[in-house]
Specification:
2 strands; single chain; 11 helices; globular; two-stranded antiparallel sheet; mainly alpha
């Protein structure tokens, strides 16, 4: 019975790996393909046109990276800060309307992005935030907050506040008790929240286009039109770059989290 389960696990794992790798391999082939018509199994014409066109504009590519990384990093930091405070309020305190505020934290999940973007654009035009980086950051933060809040709620529930209360009893102030006791234990889940918020922001297209008005350029703003326009060569190379950046970001945050835990700062999770 155990052998049978082992074979089944291997088959399922193989199917899972295939479903992940096959689209990636197809994209890699399309990077070097100029023509691949149905029903041919192999491409008819190979070309490096996409590589030459994308990497021939190095300055524009560097600016896109810088803009996207800056916006996403700011969104990640803001989401973690707001998410941490919200999670502590919802987990550690009782107050009137607590359930209502918990529901509000889920609204960006429930409201379609198109409706949200159209509604918030009107407000941003009145406030002078339309067509600005600040407006894009605020809009992205709102979209990223549900992920950060709910991850931080799970982490805050796991850590609790008993050790922080003990530190307060021993004479530590509220800020010192939090940063010396609770903060180190929450760091792994904070990094997870930040990485999730970063990716959500990095992949935003419609909201960035609408709020940024075309004047705020990000990687998604340049990549998505190629996907919609049917230029598979350039769309594939942009997709591969996007995938590479995503994996690098997750690897960095995972490495920091493991290093933090290894050094004994995140022992609560080990």
């Amino acid at each position: 019975m155990k052998k049978s389960n082992s074979y089944l696990d291997k088959i399922l794992l193989g199917i899972f790996v295939f479903l992940i790798l096959f689209p990636i391999l197809t994209m890699i082939v399309w990077v070097f393909t100029e023509r691949w018509a149905w029903p041919n199994l192999l491409p008819q014409v190979f070309s490096t046109r996409a590589l030459d066109e994308v990497f021939g504009r190095k300055e524009e590519l560097i600016q896109l990276f810088a803009s996207s990384i800056f916006i996403s990093a700011v969104v990640g930091v803001l989401s973690v800060m707001i998410g941490t405070m919200t999670a502590r309020a919802l987990v550690l305190y009782d107050f009137a309307g607590k359930g209502f505020f918990y529901f509000l934290s889920m609204l960006p999940f429930l409201v379609p992005s198109t409706v949200f973007a159209m509604g918030i654009q009107v407000s941003f035009i009145r406030w002078g935030l339309s067509n600005t980086v600040t407006g894009v950051v605020v809009a992205h933060t709102i979209c990223s907050l549900p992920y950060a809040v709910h991850l931080m709620i799970e982490g805050t529930e796991a850590v609790g506040n008993k050790l922080e209360e003990q530190a307060r009893v021993l004479g530590a102030g509220p800020w010192k008790a939090f940063f010396k006791v609770t903060f180190p234990m929450l760091m792994p889940v904070m990094l997870a929240s930040m990485s999730m918020s970063y990716i959500v922001s990095f992949s935003q297209y419609f909201i960035t286009l609408l709020i940024g008005g075309g004047s705020v350029k990000t990687f998604a703003i340049v990549m998505v039109p190629y996907l919609q326009g049917g230029d598979r060569n350039i769309a594939s190379i942009y997709s591969m770059i996007f995938l590479g950046i995503t994996l690098i970001v997750f690897a960095i945050f995972e490495g920091i989290s493991k290093l933090w835990t290894k050094n004994g700062s995140g022992e609560y999770y080990t």
